[in-house]
Amino acid sequence: MTNLKVNGITPRPTILAGAVESNGKCWGAPYSDAYGSYVNVVVHANIEIELHISLATFNPQLDEIYLRTGTKCVFSAGKCFDPIRGPTFWDVSLQTDKCSNEFFTVLYEGPSHALSDPLRRSPTMYLVNTDKIAFSLKALKKTRVCHYDAFQTEHAKFFILEESEYEYPFQKTSNKQVSADLLNYLNFKFSFIETHISNSLRKLHETLLSASCRLDRQILEHELSLAITNPETFSFLKGGGSGYYSVVSGEVIYLLKCTPVPVQLRSTVYCYNEIPVYYQNSSKFLTPRTRILKSTGTIQDCSNQTPVKFQINGVWVAATPHMTDAKSPNLLEASPFIDWTYESPKNMFHAGIFTQEDVQAFQRRISYPLESSAAQSAVTPRMNTDTIKRFEAIRSANFPWLLLTGFLKPHELVNLYLAIGWTIDEALLAPVALYNNLPRRILRDYSPIISCIFL
Q1: Planar angle of CA 353, 356, 359, nearest 5 degrees
Q2: Does the bond joining 321 to the residue before it have cis omega, within 30 degrees of 0?
Q3: Concatenated DSSP letters of 389-444
Q4: Alpha carbon distance, N-terminus to C-terminus of the chain
Q5: What is any Pfam family matched here (predicted)?
Q6: Which of 25, 183, 224, 433 has its CA 20 to 30 A from that of 336?
Q7: Is the pLDDT of residue 120 over 70?
């Protein structure tokens, strides 16, 4: 059957009994169903084929698969009967050995910082910054890895699995498969730097926003207090300068803007806390800061040390009680303090997606053939000339355990010499890169010979 409609119904005509040719001839045949039996009839039918393709949940520990309809089946069987959708099939080979440690390597397992955009304009960034591991990955889109929910990252071979109620399909082992792709390693470095800077700027923005909110709250609380205790100061601050007047009425305050009028300074015999002026040939007073006309003023002691000062037309004057030029007072300046410091990624140069141990192990694996070849070329000439002579000297000592040497093959003389004598000159091995590890390696390689000799 071909051209079937997926997740839908496909009608197909068919003949259940008899035959019909293209020229119109037909032959009947016997036919029986629940409604009766017939002889020599042609039966046409219209069959509806329903095909569904969907995802299912797989439990590798129990070898069970759970269909969308709630039916539970044995996964290794590859098929089962769904009471709702009928016969159901799946490919068992998709799971075979593709979720073992041979296909996947756990590079990191532990906590991380999830950096997400509240407006969801960019994907979530996962940042890890420890003493040995430092990397960042973007969760670009959802996918499934070995039937587990995961995220695909900007690197095609790297996936992110979040913690869930199920066990992870992969186990972290000490034998990691370190990638030799230097470009990927550098990309992780640059990605980590970009994420670190982005995270630092985000923290700076949050710090500034939080400080601004706290400052705005303090300003609002201060304005509310002034509105009740000192309406005159409130009108000056809220109005943004002089010429405003406020009236408290119940639990609200009304801010009124006054119409400016011309006035003229006048001389007095007393010092006032207000500015004495003439308005329409009448003695008035201007309140400080707000510059609102009032009929009475507040008398204040005249003092040359603390004179009454006003700023008129941008010039500071002092009333003593006559108006004289005065020195400008010191200005108050805001000095905001923001508790934020930039944290430098100090471990950037020695930490990465792979630990230093993983990188060193990988370097040893790729450099060992070269080093072993150098060691062999340096040791072999010396061994060829001295091995037989030294073995004969050891043999002539007549130690009891030398009776076992009769079973040694000729090519094992060198092994016996290395295991017993330990007389290799340091000067011979000094130029060899494997000098520091050679004794331990020889002891490990030939330990069965040593145990055999001392029996």
Answers
A1: 80
A2: yes
A3: HHHHHHHHT--GGGGGGGG--GGGHHHHHHHHT----HHHHTTSTTTTTHHHHHHH
A4: 76
A5: Monjiviricetes_fusion
A6: 224
A7: yes
Task: Evaluate whether 438 touches 375 at the Cβ level (below 8 Å).
Answer: yes
Q: What is the pLDDT of residues 215-247, one digit of tens each?
A: 889 888 888 888 888 888 888 888 888 899 888
E-strand ranges in 174-307 read: 244-249, 252-257, 264-265, 271-272, 275-279, 282-286, 293-294, 299-300
**In this model, does residue 391 exceed pLDDT 60?**
no
Q: How far apart are CA 168 and CA 171, in angstroms?
A: 7
**Contact partners, residue 270, CB within 8 Å, separation at least 6:** 299, 302, 321
User: Which residue, 416, 414, 336, 329, is CA-closest to 379?
Assistant: 414
Query: 241-246 long-range contacts, Cβ below 8 Å, gap at least 24?
Result: 242/289, 242/290, 242/291, 243/290, 243/291, 243/292, 244/290, 245/290, 245/292
Give 80's strand partners.
88
Contacts of 27 (CB under 8 A, 6+ apart): 18, 19, 42
The conformation of residue 309, written as its DSSP 8-state character, comes to E
The residue with tokens 């020695």 is: 350
Q: Which of 229, 223, 231, 227 is nearest to 289 (CA)?
A: 231
E-strand stretches of 250-341 = 252-257, 264-265, 271-272, 275-279, 282-286, 293-294, 299-300, 308-312, 315-319, 323-325
The distance of Cα 223 from the centroid of its chain, to the nearest Å, equals 43
The count of other CB atoms within 10 Å of the CB of residue 294 is 11
Pull the structure tokens for residue 363: 């370097």
List Cβ neighbours of 375 (8 Å cut-off, separation of 6 or more).
429, 432, 433, 434, 438
- Residue of higher predicted confidence among 60 and 82: 82
Which runs of consecutive H residues, i.e. helices, occur in 310-355? none
Residue 79 pairs with which residues in a beta bridge? Answer: 89
Q: How many residues make up the chain in this entry?
A: 455
Nearest by Cα to 277 from 295, 260, 264: 264
Sign (positive/negative) of CA torsion 305, 311, 313, 316? positive
List pLDDT tens digits, range 299-346.
Answer: 988 888 888 999 988 899 998 888 888 888 888 887 766 666 666 555
Pair 132, 149: CB distance under 8 Å: no
Residue with tokens 């119109």, as numbered in its chain: 24
Q: What is the phi/psi pair of residue 416, to 5°?
A: -65, -40
